[in-house]
Structures are given as structure tokens and as C-alpha cells.
Amino acid sequence: MHARERPEFLNGSPPCTDFCKLLGLRFTKEEIAERQEATRKPYMQTCVEAYWRQLEQECHFLHEHPRDEDSWNLPEIKELERDRRAYKVTGPMCRWEMKAVDNNSFEGYVRKETSFLTSSKEVADMLSGKCANTLGHGVVHRHFHLVGGDRARMAAEYPVKMVAAVLIELCGGNWYWMEKCAQ
Length: 183
Hints:
two-stranded antiparallel sheet; 6 helices
């Protein structure tokens, strides 16, 4: 993002591939550190710089990553979390109907406990939550495990329901602005 640009909303979430705890199944700690050093720091520094610009310009950002990933421990993310204009919440992606399919063509919900860091209190409140299975009401659904093969890639795309909810919240439910954002 060029410094002169002023988007109303910025989503700069990093790809999970270089932060995923599942890397430990395929690579040594040293190999993981090398991979992350080459890609993580430049990407995260660029994202965080852009998030700070969003805050300075009184615009919004959304950063999303799995709850327990190492990226949440980076100093630049920790510093952003401490800012009073930033809100960090957690919620599972099954709430937003994220689904995956196993080798037997069975479709199930992806639990994927996710943390969100945003400059919008309203978006934070909306994204925060728990799986319906843990609340004891509603229809119980089956969770799909992402371990094995390239299954984790199935959780790389945001569910349409979540994207729509974020946009509706950011636009204050104003459909005129929703259509304008979608163009």
C-alpha cells in the first residue's frame, strides 16, 4: 500500500503457511526459523506499518490469524495490541460456516480458533464468540480436522458469511455503501 492511499478498511492478514504449528511435522525448528525470517518479518512489518497508518488516518484495519500461532508474539503485533484504538478478540471460524471436505467427501465445519485484531470495536464485538457446540443450544455440528495432506489449505479462504458480516458492520448496515465497497 502506497503511503498516499487512504483505504477506509484494510485487511492485511498473513498467510498461515509460514506461521503454522503444523510446520513442525515437516521441518526442524531451524528450518522453520529460516522460512519465517525470510517471509514473516518483511510481510508483518509492512502490514503493521499499514495498520498504524490506518489508525493515524482514523480508518479501519482487520488482522486475522489462528489464535495460537507465533505471529501473535511478534513485538510489532504486541505493540499494536497495546494501543487503545485496537481490539483483540477470539472466535472459531465454524461460527461463520467455514467448511472443509475430507477424503470420503464428507463436509464438516472447521473449528479453527481464530484471533482478530481490529480498529473497529463493532467489528471486534461481532467477530468475538464461541462455537455453538460449546454454548449448549442450537444444532450441534461436526468439526473437520485439518491435519494431514493439504487439508489446512481448505481453511485459507474467509467464509462468505464472515466477509459479508464485516462489510455490513463497517458500512453501518448501509446498503448504498456496501454496494460502493463491492465495486
